[in-house]
Q: What sequence folds into this?
């Protein structure tokens, strides 16, 4: 009947109501779990992205670290090379200073020698001026001695001719043998005297020639000493200029190395 059906329905309703409620609760719990899972999934995605970003950042940092190590190594090598070049420049500077001192000493000695040479040259010039008359006198003496030598030669030849003529006269005049003999002795004596004059004139000529050659050689030696001193000073000045240029270049290189090293040290510390 209708009442029975209602009663059964009511019983069934009472029986299924807790199940329905439980299903509803389970559905809500599932929905909540699903939402929680979605949130967790989103968080996982975000965490994954963060992990990927972190890995990329770490990779970048690793690459930067490798680049930094490479540049640091390059900088260290450059600094080591600059230190080596700086030591070489300092050694070269030391050598230059030693060479400069030696060159200064050589220059002082050269200057002293030039002063001595100049003084000697001035003395020689003064002596040449003072002894110009002597040189002229030496030359005049040489000319005079040559003239006297020629005259003595002429006198000797004349005496020889006279002696020959006297001998011919003696041979022709046998009666006048005694007077001719005396005349022959006189002629022989004059020949001997002329020969002695000739020898004396030759000695005077030779002495004059020696004095003239000696004076000429002294003048030439003074001129050669002056030329040698001037050439030595010229080459010393060239050497000094070259060493000065090398020193300036070394000094500029040292300053450049120091600035570059400071830059690399600053970059490395940064």
A:
């Amino acid at each position: 009947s209708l009442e029975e059906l209602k009663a059964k329905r009511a019983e069934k309703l009472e029986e299924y109501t807790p199940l329905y409620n439980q299903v509803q609760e389970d559905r809500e719990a599932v929905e909540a779990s699903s939402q929680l899972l979605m949130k967790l999934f989103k968080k996982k995605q975000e965490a994954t992205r963060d992990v990927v970003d972190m890995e990329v950042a770490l990779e970048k940092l690793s690459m930067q670290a490798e680049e930094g190590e490479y540049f640091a190594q390059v900088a260290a090598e450059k600094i080591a090379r600059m230190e080596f070049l700086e030591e070489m420049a300092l050694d070269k500077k030391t050598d230059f200073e030693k060479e400069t001192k030696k060159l200064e000493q050589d220059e002082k000695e050269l200057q002293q020698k030039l002063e001595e040479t100049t003084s000697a040259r001035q003395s020689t010039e003064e002596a040449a001026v003072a002894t110009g008359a002597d040189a002229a006198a030496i030359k005049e003496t040489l000319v005079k001695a040559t003239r006297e030598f020629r005259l003595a030669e002429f006198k000797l030849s004349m005496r020889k001719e006279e002696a020959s003529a006297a001998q011919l006269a003696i041979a022709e005049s046998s009666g006048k043998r005694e007077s001719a003999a005396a005349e022959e002795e006189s002629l022989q004596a004059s020949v001997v005297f002329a020969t002695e004059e000739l020898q004396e004139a030759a000695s005077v000529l030779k002495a004059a020639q020696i004095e003239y050659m000696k004076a000429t050689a002294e003048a030439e030696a003074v001129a050669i000493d002056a030329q040698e001193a001037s050439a030595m000073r010229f080459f010393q000045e060239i050497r000094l200029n070259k060493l000065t240029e090398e020193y300036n270049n070394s000094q500029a290189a040292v300053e450049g190395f120091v600035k570059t090293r400071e830059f690399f040290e600053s970059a490395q510390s940064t």
In short: The two ends are 98 Å apart (CA to CA). DSSP finds three helices and no strands in the chain. Residues 2-269 form a domain with the Helix Hairpins fold (CATH 1.10.287). Residues 89 and 250 are 6 Å apart (CA to CA).
